[in-house]
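Field reference: "sequence" (input) and "structure" (output). Example, CGNR zinc finger domain-containing protein:
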Amino acid sequence: MHWVEVDGYAMPVLLAGHPGLELCNTWAGWADTPDPRREWLRDYDRLAVWSGHAGLLSADTVRRLRAAARAEPAAAERALAETRSLRAALHEVFLVPGDTAAFGAVARLAREAAAAATLATDDTGIARWTLPDDGGLRLPLLAAARAAAELLCTPARTQVRACPGDDCGWLFLDPRGRRRWCRMAVCGNRAKVRAYADRRRPATDGPTGRRTAT
């Protein structure tokens, strides 16, 4: 199964290995004909819930964003559209390193996220860069851009792979070079079943059209 239930919504399972890739996995079937049914982020409320699910934002921040979106639906729709555009650009950047236009789109949002971030520390004294909770409805967008930029700045970005499964194309890290499928139990098994069926399917024998078992 490719999904889990989070706050009453079906959310894609987290399998990419890095939060900077998870946004790309909110669309299904990258290589297939676009279809609204492939969309996991169907509205802003789902985007906010997904941001918490992916570990990009805290539960308290998600609750505030959901309430703010109900009060400002037009602004929420704009933030959702921007996030979907970032998702498409990220998918190109990770799979086509030479796509300068896509990289530029990601870089612009990453710069904005970096400018908004503040350095905070906890009781252990360990500091980290965080985005302020008052960042508005674009906070999920900036959090995703920041996470993606962090991955792009490491050698791990060369380990990104796309699942070849039908109606999939999800991205994941493959540090050992041995992983082919997003999930062997789903896409891998489907491919095995399809390959077995293809081997058992009768084949056309010559110009007469006579069919023989394989």
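Residues 73-95 form the longest helix (23 residues).
Strands lie at 3-6, 9-12, 118-121, 127-130, 160-162, 171-173, 203-205, 210-212.
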